Amino acid sequence: MHAGSMNQTTVRTALYQSHISAGANMVDFHGYELPIWYSSIQEEHLSTRNSAGLFDVSHMGLFRFRGNGVRAWLSSVSTQEYMKFQPGSCGYAHFLDHEGNIIDDMIFAISNEEEVLGVPNSTMVKVVFDWLSSNLPSDDSIVIENLSEETSIIALQGPNSGKILKDILGEENDVRRFRCQEIMANRKDLSGWIQGTGYTGEKGVEIFLSNEDAPSLWGDLISHHEVTPVGLGARDTLRLEKGYLLSGQDFLWPGIEGDGDDFPAGFLARTTSQTSVPFGLDIGHDFIGREALLRSMQSESKLWGMECMERGPSPRPGHRVMDGPEENSEIIGYVTSGGPSPSKGMTGIALGYLRNCEAGSEVWIQSSSRRRVRSEVKRPPFV
């Protein structure tokens, strides 16, 4: 995430005017003009945990995969076995290159036997589209459509999201976690797609609809007394507390520009097993990168959580992690994501790849040139 001055090439979502009207502080986020916060990151974060938050995530991509045998083909190019998912269900997968490196991750939804919807990360839409297109069957039996530009995505997240959704779109559209369906008949006469997914770890939905219809639905949802608009800042702290990966930050495909100055060369080139994400990997089927992934399972370096045990500067991406407080201590890894946790009284938390660690180990995060903060290694989530 980066904030910068707006320029003429910045893309505005269909909800831009709604954000301005709500007093949002806008930033340039990888070429999209999006809200970083409305009231404060902490307030928006806690409102989502305790009631409901509303997010514009229209910068994310949307692909439609169609054709006879589409689930078998997707299984061959990703870490998930799509044949185990029935129509009306969602899942999570990684796409790997032939060396086992993660290109991107994706939430997918099985629409029917011959159609799957997928949500790639905003910065990776073209990269993933090109990679998958290059691996399509030669008989043209599978088609990939990029619906990203014509689709708005609204996320309603939080423990009260189900009740609110029923109030606005009717009981038939209150989908359960990792279930999905077309938007059913409703008083707003909206059509589109709805699925029980999100990036906060809370109960909630993501709603896919036309750019033309998005402002009307956003307006109705934001007018509900239990709903708080939420910007990118709190979206990041919410996902960090749950230990969810951020593409380009917790892993970075070596096929695009490198890791920057904060990490050793190639540090963020990672396999699925190194990310310690258990729910996106099914090694019982053959897929691109599988052999390299199996070899990486013996890697000493794995993604861990860290929680600061004392006050000090918050951990940030690129901070070194040491095995002791002494000057001659060894670097055992680096923070990839970090910051204060609003749900834990602003205690510093972090994700990072560490060598030869286990839950309960003590490590020291070099959070400034003069300060190392003692921290406990944990297996996320933090809350």
Provide a descriptive summary of the structure in words:
- By secondary structure, this protein is an alpha+beta fold.
- The chain is built from eight helices and 20 strands.
- The protein has helices at residues 16-21, 41-50, 70-76, 125-134, 161-169, 214-222, 232-242, 290-296; strands at residues 11-12, 25-29, 32-37, 53-56, 63-66, 90-96, 102-112, 115-119, 143-146, 151-157, 180-182, 193-195, 204-210, 228-229, 301-308, 320-322, 331-341, 347-355, 362-366, 372-378.
- A hairpin with a 5-residue loop joins strand 6 and strand 7 (102-112).
- Residues 1-5 have low confidence and may be disordered.
Key structural traits:
383 residues; alpha+beta; Gyrase A, domain 2; Alpha-Beta Plaits; Elongation Factor Tu (Ef-tu), domain 3; 6-stranded mixed β-sheet; 6-stranded antiparallel barrel; 8 helices; 20 strands; globular; disordered N terminus
